[in-house]
Amino acid sequence: MARISVVSAARSRRRRVVRPLVVVTLLLTVAAAGLTFGRYHRQTLSYLTHWKGNPTRTVAYVPFPAEDPPQLRLAVVGDIGDSGRRLDATAAAIDRIGTDDPFDALLLLGDNIYPAGDPSRLPDVVFKPFGPILDRGATLLAILGNHDVKAGHGAAQMTALGMPGRWWSVERAGVLLVGLDSNTPNDPEQLAWLERTLRDSPARWKIAALHHPPYSAGYQGSNRAARAAFSPLFERFGVVLALSGHDHDYQRSTVINGVTYVVTGAAAGARRTGDADFTAVSFSWHSYVELAVYPDRTVVRALNQANRMADEWVLSPPGSRLTQGGRDSNGVR
Fold first, then answer.
1. Domain assignment present for 332
2. N or C: which end of the chain has fewer CB within 10 A?
3. CA 280 to CA 301: how far, in whole Å?
4. Pairing outcome for strands 241-244 and 205-209
């Protein structure tokens, strides 16, 4: 009996060694097939190389002081297009911190409706989950993502969301916010409009919203076309913050020629992410972003569905000595 027990244990140990080797072998086989033969070689490589999950530490949300309220407060969500409990939880989290101090605007960063932009689904993904926020007076602002225009629904979705055009600008409380169509980054009319709008605005704060991120270390990666088209204008005309979705995670870049790039595309779904040489913070988390604008600073916070905060940082206006500072719960300064 003792001998049988020893042999069984040895076999068990071999199984424990062999099974991980089988898994690794299968993954490598899939990767090789994807890289060599598949249409989705980039996606296969991304799945195998993006491993960052939840942030390592978070802190509780602290409201802004009643005696020092921001001049403008925005809730920013990306890739909300899947209805269900995860999206509902994100919307409910925003509503909780907006009950006593309502948001001025709700900004949707594209891929508002999966899989192909059908506007008949807007009640499920926008008007029901975010209804309480809008009912308290938040202005609905939106841009189009790649899924929104996939089946030719872009124009109908724009009408249903009250979008004035595929690109637009609003100016309020010293803030110029431009919404862009990164599905057509090289459109000469859009680029001429963007240059004129940024150049002529006296706003202290200039913020851009576009679906495809010019800088991303996530599964989708940096969108080079958006970077080539838009980033030179951002840098030339004083845009300090560019907000994107597309990747289902949260990322904050280092300051790149005066601009900080934020990805927040995990309102309804999350996907593991990565790091690049331009990454300041990145993690995969069902989350949204809160923007609080003051005359001398803008506070940006990344929050999850329990309103735990994993990143809080401060932007100063162009021309000041400090262009990005603050803290986040992972110790990045």
1. no
2. N
3. 14
4. parallel
pLDDT of 241 higher than 60: yes
Biggest distance spanned by C-alpha atoms of the chain: 88
CATH at 248? 3.60.21.10
Integer-rounded Cα radius of gyration of the chain: 22
Cis status, amide bond into 69, omega within 30 of 0: no
The pLDDT of 284-304, averaged and rounded, is: 96
Q: Do residues 157 and 255 share a domain?
A: yes
**Contact status, residue 256 vs residue 236, Cβ threshold 8 Å:** no
Per-residue pLDDT at 29 exceeds 70: no
Q: Are both 119 and 251 inside the same structural domain?
A: yes
Total domains present in the chain: 2
Strand 72-77 and strand 260-264: the pairing is: unpaired
User: Is the separation of the CB atoms in 93 and 304 below 8 Å?
Assistant: yes
Domain hosting 8: range is 2-49
